[in-house]
Write a sequence for this structure.
């Protein structure tokens, strides 16, 4: 009982510390787009009109379902639910890593604590934490996959086969990028397998590993078909072209430490081959992502390597200098990751790095300006699915007119808008129009919608106010 209470206190303390780091970056103007989208969806679904019908997909379902549950429990508090989920998963990961290194890896309690601290301070871990629960679950699934595939090679037991399958399932259902990791893992599964399993049935081995993922994704596609919705309307994120040297910079953050950790076991194929397969799965997912752009930020595409690194450290040979070498290796990874995150060619990671050192994120200033202007106003018509920043700026939909409400639906189905205000994004010439209000009323682009005049404008937003009254 005392031990359980102490672990509970430690878990809560870790969660609060991680929440403080998220609050610090938010105070400096950084909220990732993944968190913004997930938070806005949760607010709209729980607090919005019952008639609201989302056109965006519900994939990936695990963080989405948990966010809906959290929003239902925290309705009206304006607590960023994705931050809470991300901190809870992050704290759980750190506790699990500590227990795995101490109890299974046979590291001392002090060394295990130092190793976990180095992992928690790694910029890739903190950046993944700020990216939201999707990426944290992805790291969790990758770790389960990595340790499961090593144990499967060592024992060949069914429970270890289930760990591999569960790890792949968590990855696939927690993040769209997880699909790339699953596909990237396929060619390496044969490398990791016990020779006896391949000799018995290579096809059966692969089916056993990937059946849960195929069944889960297939069932989601079936549900999507029944309800006439799209599972994944757009897998690709905004493409950020990177040169080969820029990709190498990203890979230099976590890959060297992971490769050193697995190469230490090169003379023991039963450990080296499955660890090599785990590293190959992440690198395979990263390579596929360069073609499909499922994850726009390359730093997040390589972040699951953290799970593989922990598994590789756990299987470091039990020699006299094992513990100081492990500390030195993770310290090296921490320093290299700090240097790498300063040069990642993606706006989100650069903005996060500035926010962490206390530099305000200038990119969020237009959002704060428009929310400040609208704070004391109501009847604000906005497309919340395409402009989630407005939702999280208010923290609720009480002042907004959104899909599912008569005034919004009337206007988009052919009527004349009757709301007091209309908010639309500012668009460059020739830019594709995603906002449904702008598509319905293209006159807003030239400020020529009858009955409305522009009352606010900045680099990202335009606000129009009704200039006449309806009977």
């Amino acid at each position: 009982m005392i031990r359980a209470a102490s672990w509970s206190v430690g878990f809560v303390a870790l969660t609060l510390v991680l929440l403080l780091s998220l609050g610090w970056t938010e105070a400096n103007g950084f909220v990732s787009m993944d968190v913004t989208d997930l938070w806005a969806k949760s607010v709209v679904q729980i607090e919005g009109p019952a008639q609201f019908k989302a056109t965006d997909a519900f994939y990936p379902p695990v963080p989405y379902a948990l966010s809906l549950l959290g929003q239902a429990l925290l309705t009206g508090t304006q607590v960023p639910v994705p931050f809470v989920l991300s901190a809870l998963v992050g704290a759980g990961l750190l506790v699990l890593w500590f227990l795995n290194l101490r109890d299974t890896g046979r590291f001392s309690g002090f060394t295990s604590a130092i190793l976990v601290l180095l992992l928690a301070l790694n910029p890739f871990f903190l950046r993944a934490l700020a990216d939201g629960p999707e990426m944290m679950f992805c790291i969790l699934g990758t770790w389960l996959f990595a340790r499961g595939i090593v144990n499967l090679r060592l024992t060949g037991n069914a429970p270890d086969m289930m760990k591999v399958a569960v790890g792949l399932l968590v990855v696939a259902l927690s993040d769209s990028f997880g699909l790339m990791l699953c596909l990237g893992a396929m060619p390496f599964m044969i490398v990791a397998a016990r020779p006896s399993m391949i000799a018995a049935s290579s096809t059966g081995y692969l089916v056993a590993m990937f059946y849960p993922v195929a069944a889960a994704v297939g069932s989601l596609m079936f549900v999507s078909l029944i309800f006439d919705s799209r599972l994944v309307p757009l897998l690709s994120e905004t493409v950020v072209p990177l040169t080969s040297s820029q990709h190498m910079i990203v890979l230099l953050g976590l890959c060297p430490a992971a490769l050193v950790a697995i190469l230490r076991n090169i003379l023991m194929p039963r450990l080296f081959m499955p660890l090599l397969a785990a590293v190959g799965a992440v690198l395979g997912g990263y390579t596929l992502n360069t073609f499909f752009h499922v994850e726009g930020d390359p730093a997040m595409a390589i972040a699951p390597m953290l799970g593989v690194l922990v598994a590789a450290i756990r299987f470091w040979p039990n020699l006299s200098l094992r513990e100081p070498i492990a500390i030195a290796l993770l310290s090296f990874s921490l320093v290299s990751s700090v240097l790498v995150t300063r040069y990642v060619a993606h706006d989100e990671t650069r903005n996060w790095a500035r926010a962490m050192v206390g530099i305000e994120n200038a990119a969020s200033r237009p959002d704060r300006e428009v929310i400040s202007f609208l704070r004391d106003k109501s009847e604000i018509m906005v497309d919340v699915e395409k402009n989630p920043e407005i939702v999280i700026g208010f923290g609720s939909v009480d002042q907004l007119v959104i899909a599912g409400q008569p005034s919004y639906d009337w206007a988009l189905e052919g009527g004349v808008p009757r709301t007091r205000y209309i908010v639309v994004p500012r668009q460059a010439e020739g830019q594709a129009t995603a906002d449904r209000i702008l598509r319905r009323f293209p006159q807003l682009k030239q400020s020529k919608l009858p009955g409305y005049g522009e009352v606010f404008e900045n680099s990202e937003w335009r606000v129009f106010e009704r200039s006449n009254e309806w009977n």
Observations:
- Residues 363-466 form one domain.
- Strands lie at 380-381, 400-401, 421-425, 452-457, 461-466.
